[in-house]
Design brief:
Elements (H helix, E strand, L loop, with lengths): L5 H18 L4 E4 L9 H10 L4 E4 L4 H7 L5 E6 L4 H6 L1 H17 L5 E6 L13 H17 L7 E3 L1 E3 L3 E3 L7 E3 L4 H13 L4 E4 L2 H7 L5 H4 L8 E3 L2 E3 L2 H15 L7 E6 L11 H16 L12 E4 L55 E4 L10 H11 L16 H15 L13 E4 L25 H4 L4 H11 L1
Parallel strand pairs: 1-2, 1-13, 2-3, 3-4, 4-5, 6-9, 9-12, 12-13
Antiparallel strand pairs: 7-8, 10-11, 14-15
The structure holds 2-acetamido-2-deoxy-beta-D-glucopyranose (NAG) (4 copies).
One 2-acetamido-2-deoxy-beta-D-glucopyranose binds next to α5.
GO cellular component, one term: plasma membrane
Membrane topology: Lipid-anchor; GPI-anchor
Subcellular location: Cell membrane
């Protein structure tokens, strides 16, 4: 006779089910703002709600953004950018001010459901040359102390979103996972502090980057369809890179005495343009595969159970640095103007489809193109294209990208138009010396995915409106009459 009765089993089942529902409520998403024309916060919050996102991760603590998230119930991770780490890490007063202004005020006055503070963003990336190594932990500690002092420590947890290269495997398998040798001590200091603060480890995992940086990477292993030949780790089979990567971290934590530290996947996604492997088909396959993979709450061999994850990203950001690659500006599941890029069932809407942004305000339907009469070898053409591409966005023109098949006229026109739209269709932004003209005929090719965009209306923010928008004659006269 076993010691568990049927009734007990039902109860255990219910408890497990409850814990699953309690510990993870749906899927989260990243909301980045490195865009020349960000959508207004109310449009973005509506987009989040319409698509049933219950959690959002921010990279800073913009006042309007947070205020707009108030009363929505959406769980918010606010961020401290890397360039503020030295300030909050160097002074307890600065950390307390940051918490008062960017956490307390929003919780108490604006009813924002802040749950995490992300201290820095991938501060240990090798490209930063160790600039943030010394100040990340002091910043984490000061912010945690400030949260405790302000009485938020039960609701708001600290964390540090880290790149997956902070750990590695000594034997090529997850079981060989440990923290990178050059930052081992600092990682243990951070992990120990997170553990003492009942706070999670946050990691960003990118199978796309593995494929991008290693041409021999087995493509199928990046996806979740089970078509890859599994990799055996002492008998444990891994069918996809995500599981293997997460478990490498789980092993690293276990090896160092933190087997139970919760893990959050801070960023996961696939870009749709800017590289031959970045397209809507692969992005859909990856993101849908990931949603199905986590929806059953199965987890990974080392971490069975629900996975807490934030998709990267909600929308495209056209001002991101392309140092890592041209794909950087194309991570959105929605375009820069909030339109769904491909079918994706997040399991959060009644229709099972993504719902595009509502009420988006566009500029006029007009484009800047190369004059058809101009010769391709006109000496003004090349410098004009370099200028336009340098300041606008030509990441859709390379090999294997959405506009990679344009002819030379299309290519040049694409660059001109990008610059023109980014500059709000100002007349002088289509005055490449004698070689450009404005047209009302859409130059986008009829077949394929290449699109010559029309920009959206600029949004200046509630506080910056009068400061940044040039005053029209009526406003000047109005202000003048008020002064009198
Ligand atoms: C609050 O966050 C914003 C946005 O990240 C930042 O500019 C500001 O300096 C922070 N406030 C304080 C008092 O640190
Ligand atoms: C890191 O070092 C390299 C080479 O010394 C340099 O080119 C790069 O600008 C540095 N990056 C940062 C963020 O300091
Ligand atoms: C179009 O532009 C891209 C990127 O600037 C370049 O690599 C490509 O060769 C150009 N194609 C044509 C047909 O000019
Ligand atoms: C533009 O064309 C006009 C007339 O053909 C010519 O006089 C002028 O020098 C050209 N400007 C430039 C910058 O090439």
């Amino acid at each position: 006779m076993g010691w568990v009765t049927v009734a007990d089993r039902v109860n255990i089942g219910l408890v497990c089910l409850f814990m699953m529902l309690w510990s993870v409520s749906g899927i989260g998403v990243n909301w980045g703002t490195q865009a020349s024309h960000p959508l207004p916060p109310d449009t973005m919050v509506r987009l989040l709600r319409d698509n049933g996102f219950q959690r959002v991760k921010l990279f800073d603590a913009d006042y309007d953004t947070l205020k707009t998230l108030g009363k929505t119930g959406i769980e918010v991770m606010v961020g401290i950018p890397n360039d503020m780490l030295a300030i909050v890490g160097g002074s307890m007063k600065a950390a307390e001010k940051w918490v008062a202004k960017n956490v307390t005020q929003h919780i108490t006055s604006n009813n924002v459901n802040i749950r995490y503070v992300a201290v820095g963003n991938e501060p240990f990336l090798e490209t930063y040359n160790g600039s943030y190594l010394g100040i990340t932990f002091p910043a984490l500690r000061n912010i945690q102390l400030a949260l405790v002092k302000a009485g938020h420590n039960n609701q708001v947890k600290v964390t540090v979103p880290l790149n997956a290269d902070v750990y590695e495997s000594t034997n090529g398998s997850p079981s060989g996972g440990d923290f990178r040798a050059d930052i081992h001590d600092i990682m243990l200091t951070i992990v120990n502090f997170l553990s003492l603060s009942s706070a999670p480890f946050t990691v960003n995992i990118y199978p796309f980057i593995s494929l991008y940086s290693d041409p021999n990477f087995p493509v199928e292993y990046a996806f979740f369809d089970g078509n890859a030949s599994p990799v055996s780790d002492g008998g444990t089979l891994y069918y996809n890179m995500f599981d293997a990567n997460l478990d490498t971290l789980a092993h690293a934590l276990q090896k160092n005495g933190f087997a139970d530290l919760p893990i959050i996947v801070g960023e996961i996604g696939w870009p749709t343009d800017g590289d031959r492997n970045a397209n809507t088909e692969y992005a859909r396959r990856f993101n849908q595969g990931f949603m199905s993979h986590i929806s059953g709450g199965r987890g990974t061999p080392m971490r069975p159970g629900p996975i807490d994850a934030y998709l990267f990203s909600l929308i495209d950001e056209d001002s991101k640095s392309i140092a890592p690659g041209n794909f950087e500006r194309h991570w959105g599941i929605f375009t820069f103007d909030g339109q769904a890029k491909y079918p994706l069932n997040l399991g959060t809407t009644n229709s099972g489809a993504l719902i595009s942004a509502k009420g988006v305000q566009y500029l006029e339907r007009k484009w800047c193109v190369m004059k058809p009469s101009v010769r391709l070898d006109d000496p003004q053409v090349e410098p004009s294209v370099s200028f336009a591409c340098g300041l606008a966005d030509c990441t859709c023109l390379g090999y294997g990208t959405s506009c990679g098949n344009l002819d030379a006229w299309g290519n040049i026109s694409y660059a001109f138009n990008s610059y023109f739209q980014k500059n709000n269709q100002r007349e002088d932004a289509c005055k490449f010396p004698n070689v450009s003209m404005i047209t009302k005929a859409d130059p986008s090719p009829r077949d394929g995915n290449c699109k010559f965009n029309i920009m959206i209306q600029p949004y200046y923010g509630s506080a910056g409106w009068y400061a940044r928008k040039p005053l029209g004659l009526t406003s000047v006269l109005l202000i003048f009459s008020l002064v009198l």
